[in-house]
Amino acid sequence: MSRATRTRSIILPLAVGAAFLATWHAAVRITGSTLFPTPMDVVRGFVELQGRGLLLRYIVASLFRVSWGFGLAVLVGVPLGLLMGWFRWVFEALNPLVQMFRPISPIAWIPVAILWFGVTDIAPIFLIFLAAVFPITVSSAAAVANIQPVYVRAARNFELSGLQLFRQVILPATLPQIITGLRIALGIAWLVVVAAEMIAVNSGLGYLIIDARNAGKRYDLVVAGMVMIGLIGLLLDLAVRRVERTPSLRWGYASRSD
Amino acid sequence: MGIFARYAATAVVWLAAISVLHGWLNLNAFQARRAGADGGKKTFKIGFLPVTCHLTCPVTDFINRSMTGSNIYEPIRFSGWPELKEAFLAGHTEATFILAPLAMKLREDGIKMKIVYLGHRDGTALMVHKDSDIYRIEDLRGKTVAVPNRYSNQRLLIFKALRDRNIPFDEVKLVEMPPPDMPAALSVKAVDGITSGEPFMGQTELDGYGRILYLTKDVWPEFISCVLAVREDVIEKDRERVQDLVNGIAKSGKWIDQSMDHRMQAAKFVSKNYYNQHPRLLEFVLSKPPDRVKYTNLAVRRPDFEEIEELARTAGILEGKVHFDDYCDPSFVRDDATIEAFQFEAPR
Question: ipTM of the assembly?
Fold first, then answer.
């Protein structure tokens, strides 16, 4: 990357961000809204949260639930997807069920989560798991199904089979696509944190939003929660992109990006 | 496979670190348990929402903790009716504050539970926008009003107000809306009127865009909206604890109503420790006017429930299969004139 493009990649988003904040501020002022906060109100909301020692606690709580929900989804979704992609009969057996569960919003699962897991941390983790596991399964299955047949044939010519074939050919061949699937699923997992924390937990960024709605006219805190979720979402995406760029994983992507 | 091992190790370290942090910051997992906090028994959980209808729940908890240093039960704060109800049905909370008609409906659906005490009297308003042309209940014809839940007494209250004026029920359109969303909806005139428990109604007055069409005492004096319900198996197994709980709730109710000073103390410590609201909000609804919501005369009485039952049947939300003796157990406090207020002053 040349210096000019590097500078551009910093200046451009900053300028767009500044324009966005200015428009936001102007829109609140022009409409004379007394309920919707200006960017400065939100900053003051952040300062208040920090002062009460809540910001870090809530961030940790949400990350905790998303980490476990997403982690379990990876442990279940990737193997399941690989099996579905490799064995036709597994696919035929499970695909209708997976496709049926996939479009059900985590919000619809809230009553079930409460009935099964009560008001503990397990209920939101369960909801986040549900939101993430199906995209992971589907993308892993597609990754295996899309392997170039020539790889598999070549591997068979070398008399690879079973675990060896899986470790030395299938896994490396499918990884780039699986990781893209994981990145999308992580986004979804983080997306449902608000819905998941509607259940009576007493911490987390989603809880912050719901709590602020209960607290009277605290829409500054509602928006502060939204901003925090957005910022952490950005960081998570950057982290997964770094994993994607690991040379041994990104062979499938030539030099398209950056 | 080195790279996999590395990523797996990173993931495990991250999960462990975030779990320890969460346990430390949010679950108090590493604090020594307070001695005798629950006397070795499983904690007794009570569901409640951050509304004035449930005020005696946090007040009792706060006074108990302050006076004895221990908690006889653990209040669990929910964000909405459905979650509160589901946790109660699934047995995750032993007792809960709940809308009276919703409790009666659950009993009709075969849920074994009993109403043992009332949460409050009055404490509801119907608010309209200050610019609106609604000045009398008759003006509600053709308008849209938001109610918290179809099984809420606020809905029955509108029915009663309309029936008293011979206005057919279907001339007012009722929509269900979570109370926290009501002030904003009224402010942008998405609905013509809103009615729910406090402090959400008082908030619209405080913020300058809401006007009271009626307070409960104008339409249905001694109105009941929320009650304390306990699962029957809990009453059978642990009657003594339920008795302690009801006594505590009754004593706090008396304490709140003893003086305006006590109300202001309650507004302060409940806002800060339980509701996360600005104290001004609770101070406002507990004082303007002082009889906006009341916490005495809370024993369970037959005629009150017969009236609710009759209205609920007319409104079509109850079938009339169950009656007072099925869903009420008035034996814990038969007459709250016999109850003395807590002797308590909150630390300033």
Answer: 0.79
Architecture of domain B124-219: 3-Layer(aba) Sandwich (3.40)
CATH of B45-122+224-338, one of 3.40.920.10, 3.30.360.10, 3.40.190.10, 3.30.70.100: 3.40.190.10
pLDDT in tens, B115-126: 999 888 888 889
Q: Does A79 touch chain B (CB under 8 A)?
A: no
Check B183 against A57: CB less than 8 A apart: no
Kindly determine whether residue B25 and residue A35, on different chains, have CB atoms separated by under 8 Å: no
Average pLDDT over chain B reads 84
What pLDDT does B38 receive? 42
Q: Which of B7, B10, B18 to mutate to test the interface with A (most CBs of A within 10 A)?
A: B18
Q: Best interface-test mutation with B: which of A36, A48, A60 has the largest number of B CBs within 10 A? A: A60
**Coil vs helix vs strand at B212:** strand
Whether residues B276 and A214 touch (CB distance < 8 A) is answered with yes
- Which residue from B83, B85, B133 is spatially nearest to B105, judged by alpha carbons? B85
Place of tokens 């609604």: B134
Integer CA distances (angstroms), B47 to A242, B50, B74, in order: 45, 10, 9
Domains (range + CATH), chain A = 38-251 (1.10.3720.10)
**Is the pLDDT reported for residue A63 higher than 60?**
yes
Specify the amino acid at residue B183: P
What is the pTM (predicted TM-score) of this model? 0.78
